[in-house]
């Protein structure tokens, strides 16, 4: 009986760790104030993700989709070219798909003075 | 706060739960209590078929909404690149399980004699799909996936009795059959409901993992709300089993009407439980 219970527990107890991928780091950092518009932005995720859409909104311009280029496979680090809209606050909204099928989204912002 | 696609996903998932739990439940009840539900057999088949169609529609729309969530616009619902991307993940596997399951239910309900086992198998395949996506497969334990299937089959069994038992209770000419159906269901539920609750609590604990996550996160609080609602259901179920059904067995027609009202209240509470679950699994994130 003990063996059966032990076996049942071994089967039922989890061996994995629960976590979705999340942004570990962005470049520029969320909320940062910088002096020049960066040529590109960076996103660093904790697990593999496939980016599907990135939009840039600027206080004086309507939101535009950023070109993902050839970064259309699963990965953890992405670098996206950023068009310059001059000084002001930039809001970057990203969407993507985790390998587990979860749709994910998030945003970060930075200010150019 | 979820965006419009997240909110739409919750409603569609609720339709999915109602469709698959309801249709599978009606099939289980048809299999177990065929002698007692004979007067409403055709109505039950029609209801199960309609619920399977609801599940089928929710499956397709849910898949397309995931595409929209990837682009942030309605274009994603029909974007071949996004849908193709989803197809390659567990979302695609789940889509297949659900389409096959719904089709088996619909076909099975249309085939005389041997159809019911086909429909039951279809319902089980569809319910198994819920163990293939979300937080449970992340536990990487086949045993927990089986536990979730058991939990869902118990839920389906409970949900599946609502309509037949209510209909029978409202037919004075079938009072004794309704009383016997209620009595037999009560006997089985004495085993099924503790299994349902035990399995649910165990899975919830495996997913959340600590008391802090249960008490101080949206995910944990939604789980606690489910527990509270199930406790409410238990009170209603106890009244049915200990009061109304025995009174019906003694021939009290008034008790049958009370049972019907009690079942309606149960159905509303179950609807809130399913809506909470849809929110839990769609927009709330696990405590880290």
Describe this structure in words.
The complex is a heterodimer of chains A (113) and B (288). Chain A has one helix and seven strands, in the order H-E-E-E-E-E-E-E. Chain A is mainly beta and 113 residues long. Residues 1-19 of chain A have low confidence and may be disordered. Chain B has helices at 4-32, 41-71, 80-87, 90-110, 115-129, 135-138, 142-169, 175-208, 211-216, 218-249, 253-282. In chain B, helix 1 (4-32) runs antiparallel to helix 2 (41-71), helix 2 (41-71) runs antiparallel to helix 4 (90-110) and helix 7 (142-169) runs antiparallel to helix 8. Chain B is globular and about 60 Å long. At the A-B interface, helix 1, strand 3 and strand 6 of A face helix 2, helix 3, helix 4, helix 6 and helix 7 of B.
Instruction: Let me know the largest β-sheet of chain B.
Output: none
Distance between the termini of chain A: 71 Å
Taken from the alpha-carbon principal axes, the silhouette of chain B is globular
Number of extended strands of chain A:
7
Beta-strand residue fraction of chain A = over 45%
What share of the residues of chain B does DSSP label as strand, in percent? under 5%
Unreliable stretches of chain B (pLDDT < 50, length at least 5) are none
Short description:
The complex is a heterodimer of chains A (113) and B (288). Chain A is mainly β and 113 residues long.
What's the layout of helices and strands?
The complex is a heterodimer of chains A (113) and B (288).
Chain A: H1 2-12, E1 23-27, E2 32-34, E3 40-58, E4 61-65, E5 75-81, E6 88-98, E7 103-112
Parallel strand pairs in A: 2-7
Antiparallel strand pairs in A: 1-3, 3-4, 3-5, 3-6, 6-7
Chain B: H1 4-32, H2 41-71, H3 80-87, H4 90-110, H5 115-129, H6 135-138, H7 142-169, H8 175-208, H9 211-216, H10 218-249, H11 253-282
